[in-house]
Amino acid sequence: MAKLIDLVKGAYADATVGIVDEVVKEVPEVAFFDARLVKGTQFKTLARTSLPTAGFRTIGNGITASRSGYSLKNFDLGILAGLVQIDKAEVLGDSLRSKEEVLSDEAIDLIVAGMKELASKVWYGGKAGAESFDGVAALCEDALVVDAGDSTANKCSSVYAVGNDAKKACGLVFSENSGFFLNGELDFKEGKMLGTNNEEVPCFWTDLTGWAGFSAVNSKKMARLANLGAASHTLTDALLAKLVNAYRKATGSRPDALFASYDQVAALQASRTATMVAPRERGSISAPWPTDHDGIPLIASNAIVDTEAVWTASDDSSASGSSSSGS
Question: How many CB atoms lie within 10 A of CB 64?
Fold first, then answer.
């Protein structure tokens, strides 16, 4: 499957390749998840619910015909939007950058901000207004949630185990009409904006408007280690093993990646502190920054917050987190 940067390269949008490269540095979800284009703002897909029946038979005896079971799933995209207005005098008065450089930097920053917001919605989703698709936190089945045990209100975090396939597991989805995702064309125009004194000010402005979303075709391809905390319930390899085992039992395979907040990855690093024994010195040294668990990529993301509500099996609405993706 293609990544967002592959879609950009396929559209021969050379200028946007650099923008996507910048986004990847701050938004690892864009580099990891497969991406696909769809027509319009909604799409339907078939999700497999069961396999055909197979078994041994004796000579001369037949076997009942069967086929895979499927269910039709509907997905909605949301409107990803942003608006930048800059005082014209500020742009023209920049002594270090040309007008074109100032506006180009602002356009890149706006797209980066948009991708950060999309990454946040991958995990936390939303149903208010334009935020019309669910995130992994809400989509994880109770049987695929491991409870780390913290119960501090709005101070929890999670690790998410996911499969990656935009057609069979999880992936990013963009509307073909959202041209800026492919060509990065955020053209600034001259106009007017209201100043702090509510009087009009000449400005340059541009807007980010496009349809984007997240598809989770197979709910078994998502597992969650919930209710991690900042003190006695921080991330350890033992907890990750439980998470991977829950995913493996549901799918028969390992997840493609594990996503966690930076604070929880740092806690895992602390739990892995190595002991140094030398002929003349004894002590401890910090283990390297964790990038995997048993060979499964472990990815730190600012989009995963440490202010989640306490998850409970009876109320998945507690899965919602802050929409702030950090910086």
Answer: 6
277-295 residue pLDDT tens: 555 555 567 789 999 999 9
- With contact defined as beta carbons under 8 Å apart, do 172 and 77 qualify? no
Query: What is the per-residue pLDDT for 110?
Result: 86
For residue 189, what pLDDT is reported? 92
The CA-based diameter of the chain, rounded to the nearest angstrom, is: 90
Gap between the Cα atoms of 250 and 241, Å rounded: 14
pTM: 0.82
Distance CA 59, CA 46 (A): 36
Low-confidence stretches of the chain (pLDDT < 50) are 316-327
Asked if the structure places residue 285 within a domain, the reply is yes
Range of the domain at 120: 4-48+70-319
**What gap in Å lies between CA 86 and CA 51, rounded to an integer?**
57
At 11, phi and psi to the nearest 5?
A: -90, 5
Q: Amino acid identity, residue 70?
A: Y
User: Taking the mean position of all CA atoms in its chain, how far away is CA 271?
Assistant: 26
In a domain, 102, yes or no: yes
Closest CA to 211 of 118, 104, 303, 112: 118
The per-residue pLDDT for range 99-128, each reduced to its tens digit, is 989 998 888 888 888 889 999 999 998 655
CA–CA separation, 178 and 19 (whole Å): 16
- Tokens for 48, please give them: 């497999």
Residue 65 lies in a domain: no
User: CA 168 to CA 208: how far, in whole Å?
Assistant: 29
Number of domains observed in the structure of the chain: 1
Q: How far apart are CA 8 and CA 13, in angstroms?
A: 6
